[in-house]
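Researcher: Go.
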Amino acid sequence: MDNNFKTLAGVDCAGKIEKKGKFSYLSWAFAVEEVGKRFPNWLYEVKRFDGVPYLKTELGYFVEVSVTIDGVERSEIMPVLDNRNQPIATPTTFEINTSTKRCLVKALAFHGLGLFIYAGEDLPSEDLREVYSEAERNVYHSLVNESDDFGLYEFWFGLPEEKQNALYNSFPDGQKVAMKKASDSLLKHAVNSVNELVEATDSAVKELHDDQIAECISDVSDHKRIKAMFFNRLLPESQEYIKLMLKAA
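Model: Structure:
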């Protein structure tokens, strides 16, 4: 361990740790002050990508900051995150600036300052791990992989929003964007399929084609939410006809 690292690792940061949501951060102003006291000639650089201080990718937005102390450069690249450490899909300039300051502090941690704060951050927090069960994750992945639109709709809208957001990010790295798109596409397809069944049923009622009506009802009968959406979107006269038809069966 070089002397500069020892110097910064020995700085007492305990009273300068800030909380954002459930996560701890070192105050960037404190970090800059402490480094400046000990190394007046230190430098930092916010990396530019095509002239802007952030990188836009399929996986989200990233910022990168490097810090040089006595000729030794250390850099950190990190996604633009909210206070729950979740990626921000369309960050504002303020959110990019905030992430840049957080990235600066993490780059300083590579030089020793406040490094202890980040110990274990690569492990999922207990809160995030408990948002959904392994069984729920497996069901979700299976429904998406099998392109089961009605099954996914039934499962998805039986979950609270917090669990939906967590499951969105449960796919392995490299698959998240594609699988999120596939999931959203299946949910939209489920709604479109119901609309098509509603249109076919309304038409069948007008023409008194009971066999076709029964077939449409059968297509939605295994899914409570899909079935409710189907009946709620039927014309009033179709709803009444089907009630009488089912009562007589």
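Model: The chain has eleven helices and six strands.
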